[in-house]
Structure formats: structure tokens, C-alpha cells
Write a structure and sequence with these properties.
With about 170 residues, the protein is an alpha+beta fold. The protein contains 4 helices and 6 strands, in the order ααβββαββαβ.
Length: about 170
């Protein structure tokens, strides 16, 4: 957001290869409808925020995105719960139709749910999207101490069923 007072701005010049500048100008004007200055300010904020994240200090806000590959549904008896919720046992279907080939990746889905319960102090919201029979997208909004967000991100990434992952810290 630009300051109200023009005196708060500092002009500077940078040197860029011509092809990079042309690509940048086309990108920001055609795709984002921004001025060059607005686009550079936005890019600088993103660059600084990305670097601040590395210090693992303070409260941060952002999202964790994971693409889970789970090989389709399995049917097994298991429990859910954590220290603040009473565990309950149930099954997801006929135990004769257990998909043993994909049971480990299905266990990752159950484990991710348990992990999210453990990190409920920093998870603001989750969105779970079924993309195909064997893939789901999970978007987790987080707010809390940077080191806890990093722990959650690393723990989820350790799951074998995670095909792709990303994190975006915006504040």
C-alpha cells in the first residue's frame, strides 16, 4: 500500500538485462495490471517476508499445501483421537476388501489427521479437496510461532503419501 505522503518514497535505479525487464513489464501489465513500481514493491515485500521466515522467530501467518497420493480407499479398523478428544474405534467398510497395496499411504492420511490434531494450537482452518480417487489436496491455514509452523510442515512432509508440498508465509 503506497504511503499518503510522497516524501516517504525513495527513488533508486537498478540494472537489468533487457530481456528480463521486457518479460517483467509484460507480466505485470498484462497479468496483474500493476505499475512497474507497484510490482517491484510487492516483489520486495515477498522477498523480505520469505527471508524473515527463515529466522523462526515470532508469530507468523500463512498456509501449508500438500498433495497426498493415497492409492484409493482402504477398509481397516482404526481409532482417532488425541489427549483432548476421547478416542473412538470404527471401520470404513468391509474388512475383506482391504487394499493391502495402498494401506501404508492410507495410514499416512490417518496420520496426517492425527498430526493436525496435535498442532491444533496453530491450525486456523483446513480445506481437504478430493481431486481423484487416489489424490487429495490439503490446504492448512496456520497462525502461530514460526518454529511450530515449521515443525508441522516438516512433520507432514515426512509422510510417504505426500507427493508435493509447499508453504507460504505472508506475515
Amino acid at each position: 500500500m503506497p504511503p499518503d505522503d510522497e516524501s516517504e518514497y525513495k527513488r533508486f535505479s537498478i540494472s537489468l538485462p533487457n530481456d528480463l525487464l521486457e518479460e517483467f513489464d509484460a507480466f505485470v501489465t498484462l497479468k496483474h495490471k500493476l505499475s512497474r513500481s507497484d510490482a517491484i514493491r510487492k516483489a520486495m515485500r515477498n522477498f523480505i517476508t520469505g527471508d524473515e521466515w527463515k529466522d523462526l522467530q515470532g508469530t507468523r501467518v500463512g498456509s501449508i499445501t500438500i498433495l497426498m497420493s493415497h492409492g484409493g480407499p482402504t477398509h481397516e479398523r482404526h481409532t482417532h483421537g488425541d489427549e483432548s478428544h476421547k478416542p473412538y474405534e470404527h471401520d470404513h467398510g468391509d474388512s475383506e476388501n482391504v487394499d493391502h497395496e495402498h494401506a501404508e499411504s492410507h495410514a499416512d492420511l490417518l496420520r496426517s489427521n492425527e498430526i493436525e490434531h496435535f498442532y491444533k494450537d496453530i491450525i486456523v482452518s483446513t480445506l481437504h479437496v478430493h481431486l481423484e480417487d487416489d489424490r487429495c489436496l490439503e490446504i492448512i491455514a496456520v497462525k502461530g510461532p514460526a518454529h511450530r509452523i515449521k515443525e508441522l510442515y516438516d512433520t507432514l512432509n515426512a509422510l510417504k503419501g505426500v507427493a508435493m508440498h509447499g508453504i507460504s508465509i505472508i506475515s
